[in-house]
Amino acid sequence: MQRLLIIGCGDIARRALPWLVKHYRVYAAVRSDARYRELREMGVTPLRADLDNPRTLQRLAGIGNLILHFAPPQDNGLDDKRMRALLAALSTGKILPRRLVYISTSGVYGNCHGAWVSEARPIHPQTTRAKRRADAESRLRRFGRNRRVSVAILRTPGIYAGDRLPLARLERALPLLRDEEDIYTNHIHADDLATIARIALACGRPGRIYNATDDSVLKMGAYFDLIADRLGLPRAPRLPRDEVERRLSPAMLSFMGESRRLTNDRIKRELGVRLRHPDVSAALDAIKQGDRPTCCG
């Protein structure tokens, strides 16, 4: 049985684990005692390692034939120090991984002013968060070429699920942009992203980029309106951009400065992905049939 190492065993990884533990011998890098016990109960072998402490990463070298990398960069700077430390540690192992899948962000494309964006479009990251992701991608692709490791990168937009909806923002009536000033956003259900990641692990082409997005074509306001209408909440107010900028924090505003529409032909054609939730509307129908989700911001 092949050995799989998971870096960043958060929500998406845990959604994939029931399938993964049946097909691989799964290891995961962990920091906390609580996560250590939780993963053991799920059939995973936890390994003590901290991406912010390079000395602890040596134990990961040579462990996995395959790697799923879900962990984000650190919260500051323009380069991904965590990725740099991890790749340095992996390079010391007698056995290198054969395949590695990395969850990146569609934010590396920057503001495309509503244009359709395929994986062939050059990246132009504009936020420090996206620049760190772009640095991680560059390091990984170089590692793949130099070490003959098959690296596939999933550029992921806004992730949602029944417990990952912006209900708290709707309930606080925080404003959105008027339609004529609004931006296009992109979405993927957390369960579908978990599935895409495991398929890419088996089928992703070396050095290949994939837009891991669903079929939705929505502006931000339409996305919030759809959630509000389906779940019986008041719609958020729509205001001119200058008024919105006075009311929202810089962190919230950063998500209103970039507009693009991602294509997803490649995940369907090359990976054979069939989305369980092809768009947000279909996913909300499924959510509405079950229990109403709790607020998660």
General description of the model:
- This protein has 297 residues and is of the alpha/beta class.
- 37% of the residues lie in helices and 19% in strands.
- The chain has helices at 11-23, 33-41, 81-90, 128-147, 167-171, 190-203, 220-231, 241-247, 250-254, 265-269, 280-289, and strands at 3-7, 25-30, 45-48, 66-69, 99-105, 116-117, 150-156, 158-160, 176-177, 184-185, 187-189, 208-211, 218-219, 238-239, 261-262.
- It is globular, with a radius of gyration of 19 Å.
What are the main properties of this structure?
19% strand, 11 helices, alpha/beta, 15 strands, Rossmann fold, 297 residues, seven-stranded parallel sheet
Please report the first level of CATH classification, the CATH class of the domain at 3-161 and 189-215 and 261-276.
Alpha Beta
Radius of gyration: 19 Å
Number of helical runs? 11
Q: Helicity range of the residues?
A: 25-40%
Strand order of the largest sheet: 3-2-1-4-5-7-12
What is the ordering of alpha helices and beta strands?
Answer: EHEHEEHEEHEEHEEEHEEHEHHEHH
Overall mean confidence score, pLDDT: 94
CATH homologous superfamily grouping of the domain at 3-161 and 189-215 and 261-276:
NAD(P)-binding Rossmann-like Domain
Distance between the termini: 40 Å
